[in-house]
Automatic annotation (TrEMBL):
<feature type="binding site">
    <location>
        <position position="150"/>
    </location>
    <ligand>
        <name>substrate</name>
    </ligand>
</feature>
<dbReference type="Pfam" id="PF01202">
    <property type="entry name" value="SKI"/>
</dbReference>
<dbReference type="GO" id="GO:0005524">
    <property type="term" value="F:ATP binding"/>
</dbReference>
<protein>
    <recommendedName>
        <fullName>Shikimate kinase</fullName>
        <ecNumber>2.7.1.71</ecNumber>
    </recommendedName>
</protein>
<dbReference type="GO" id="GO:0009073">
    <property type="term" value="P:aromatic amino acid family biosynthetic process"/>
</dbReference>
<keyword id="KW-0057">Aromatic amino acid biosynthesis</keyword>
<feature type="binding site">
    <location>
        <position position="131"/>
    </location>
    <ligand>
        <name>ATP</name>
    </ligand>
</feature>
<comment type="subunit">
    <text>Monomer.</text>
</comment>
<feature type="binding site">
    <location>
        <position position="48"/>
    </location>
    <ligand>
        <name>substrate</name>
    </ligand>
</feature>
<comment type="similarity">
    <text>Belongs to the shikimate kinase family.</text>
</comment>
<dbReference type="InterPro" id="IPR031322">
    <property type="entry name" value="Shikimate/glucono_kinase"/>
</dbReference>
<comment type="function">
    <text>Catalyzes the specific phosphorylation of the 3-hydroxyl group of shikimic acid using ATP as a cosubstrate.</text>
</comment>
<dbReference type="InterPro" id="IPR000623">
    <property type="entry name" value="Shikimate_kinase/TSH1"/>
</dbReference>
<keyword id="KW-0028">Amino-acid biosynthesis</keyword>
<keyword id="KW-0808">Transferase</keyword>
<keyword id="KW-0418">Kinase</keyword>
<feature type="binding site">
    <location>
        <position position="72"/>
    </location>
    <ligand>
        <name>substrate</name>
    </ligand>
</feature>
Length: 188
């Protein structure tokens, strides 16, 4: 539940507007998104998990068997469907920001960038084998290269939250709740 009285009118002011979390792999979109959804009384969805349900395969299997281009098509298809609903917190795939068409769906809601330092991402993702773009690569170097190519797209978010390395998921969620009123638009 929302504990800060300043944020207690937030669910009403949001009026069901979806919140889309964007950011690098490991930035905490899923973990934080679940906290945020619970605090707002929203449903939580994760585009990677929805793609896996549609395809009947894991993200790694889709990349290996059908290739990244097919994964990206599925990602756009899933995002288009998700954007038809409301009262959702959506954890998006790290690369969803690369496809211009995806922004037309993301902008149906409010877009929040979880900006996490590369060393912190490395700590979180070391040993994780579920992210195909990080397989067979030196983790810090690969994450740095991806971030350099993507940060200009992540920066198109409505809200950027720079996450201190020691901030727990619940504190990140609380920081989003505190910052959201400042970016609420009149047209939502
Ligand atoms: N604030 C946090 N503090 C410490 N660990 C965290 C925090 N947020 C997430 N983590 C951990 O980092 C890992 C990655 O988190 P998560 O899966 O939520 O990231 P993600 O952004 O959804 O990644 P992806 O885009 O690859 O699915 C998990 O092990 C999670 O427990
Ligand atoms: O950053 C990326 O491009 C990706 C992130 C993951 O969430 C998955 O969407 C997939 O592994 C690709």
């Amino acid at each position: 539940m929302i504990s800060d009285p300043q944020c207690s009118t937030l669910p009403h002011r949001l009026n069901g507007t979806n919140l889309y979390l964007i950011g690098m792999m490991g930035s905490g979109k899923t973990t934080t998104g679940q906290e945020l959804a619970a605090a707002l009384g929203y449903r939580f969805m994760d585009t990677d998990r929805l793609i896996e349900q549609v395809a009947g395969q894991s993200v790694s299997e889709i990349f290996a068997q059908a290739g990244e281009a097919t994964f990206r098509q599925l990602e756009t298809q899933v995002l288009a469907e998700v954007s038809c609903y409301h009262h959702l917190v959506v954890a998006t795939g790290g690369g969803i920001i690369l496809e211009p068409m995806n922004w037309s769906y993301l902008h149906h809601g409010l877009v929040i960038w979880l900006k996490v330092s590369i060393p912190n991402l490395v700590n979180r993702l070391a040993g994780d084998t579920t992210r195909p773009l990080l397989a067979h690569a030196a983790l810090a170097e690969k994450l740095t290269t991806l971030a350099q190519a993507r940060n200009e797209f992540y920066a198109q978010a409505d809200l950027t939250l720079t996450i201190a390395d020691n901030l727990r998921p619940r504190q990140v969620s609380q920081a989003i709740l505190t910052a959201l009123p400042k970016i609420l638009r009149d047209d939502i």
